[in-house]
Write a structure and sequence with these properties.
Helix content is 49%, strand content 10%. By secondary structure, it is α/β, with parallel strands linked by helices. The longest helix is centred in the C-terminal third of the chain and has 18 residues, at 250-267. 47% of the residues are buried.
Length: 338
């Protein structure tokens, strides 16, 4: 293990960096050799995890100006997403317009804030060109879901080609889905090899590994799958496609976040985290931000290391911000997501 850490430290010095929404660019995670002793040594104390998560919403609350500041931070960490079968270029253009100005200018002015943007826009492959055109002249990345999203059951060579085509079309972030069967059958070598191939196909584009945690059976499987994907070079680990019966939850998030911390402490490389699916309320965003800050520190609440996979969340945040500056709640339809 000592030699592996030494190799990782040497790789860190030579690793490419990225400034995805951060003031200080970090080296990308190049991955490390598969270490099954490390990965299979991970356990999850379900009752303790659930107690920790149950206590968080009540213990960690912010009010008034502090709440507004954290909600604005949450906006900058949103991957504004449309992944519907009836997506059109017009819908994507509206989504991108909202990503460029996610909060009304008059609200920002009353808060004394400069213009902000969302962390990224996330679309299917066919919608990448429309998103790239709509975001031209901004620093907002285009993310694309790939590898047979959401099931990940298309032929392997086609999944690799899908990644390459999305990168060629202009996506700078690729959200891939792992093969859940590798986790459920304990074939960790296959999961590592698959993730490593996906990372290589992405080239300079950052890769987010979607674990589909609601389908992995146990929190222990979530911990081990998280670690294997990071070992194989994932830039982010992500909870869900948003299409499963159970998506992002606090217990799953705590397990994944602690795996990230373990990986960082052993290798020195930062890996990002993206909860996705079911996060639609501003109060929920605050809880997730508090969890990230408590477990990983302030550096991990920057957009290059933390994203929400969401769409309706932005509308509720904007509504809460308007309440903060006016003292009154407006109707939800006055804050269209796009």
């Amino acid at each position: 293990m000592d030699s592996q850490i030494a190799e990782a430290s040497a790789a860190k010095a030579a690793a490419p960096t990225s400034g995805h929404g951060s003031d200080s660019a970090l080296p990308r995670n190049p991955g490390v050799a598969l270490d099954l002793d490390w990965a299979l040594g991970l356990e999850a104390n379900t009752s303790a995890i659930e107690r920790r998560c149950a206590s968080l919403p009540g213990r960690r609350t912010v009010k008034k100006d502090h709440q507004a500041a954290w909600l604005l931070k949450a906006v900058t960490c949103i991957d504004l997403t449309t992944l519907a079968g009836d997506d059109t270029e017009a819908r994507v253009r509206r989504l991108c317009a909202k990503a460029r100005q996610p909060v009304r200018a008059d609200i920002l002015s009353q808060l004394g804030m400069p213009e902000i943007t969302t962390g990224a826009v996330c679309v299917y492959h066919d919608m990448i060109p429309a998103a790239v055109r709509a975001l031209h002249g901004t620093q907002i990345p285009v993310a694309a879901v790939s590898t047979g999203f959401p099931a990940g059951l298309s032929p392997f060579h086609l999944r690799l080609e899908e990644i390459k085509e999305s990168v060629k079309a202009g996506a700078t972030e690729i959200d891939i889905v792992i093969s859940r069967r590798h986790v459920l059958s304990g074939n960790w070598q296959a999961l590592y090899d698959e993730m490593k191939a996906f990372r290589a196909a992405c080239g300079d584009a950052h890769v987010k590994a979607i674990l589909a945690t609601g389908e992995l059976g146990t929190l222990r499987n979530v911990a081990r799958a998280s670690m294997i994907c990071m070992m194989a070079g994932a830039d982010f680990i992500k909870t869900s496609t948003g299409k499963e019966g159970v998506n992002a939850t606090l217990p799953v998030s705590l397990v994944m976040i602690r795996a990230i911390r373990d990986y960082y402490e052993r290798t020195g490389f930062h890996v990002g985290y993206k909860p996705a699916g079911g996060i639609s309320k501003a109060k929920d965003a605050l809880v997730y931000l508090a969890l990230m800050k408590e477990e990983l520190g302030k550096r991990w609440v920057q957009p290059d290391l933390f994203r929400f996979g969401a769409s309706s969340l932005l509308g509720d945040i904007e509504r809460q911000l308007e309440h903060h500056v006016t003292g009154a709640y407006s109707a939800g339809y006055r804050h269209p997501m796009a």
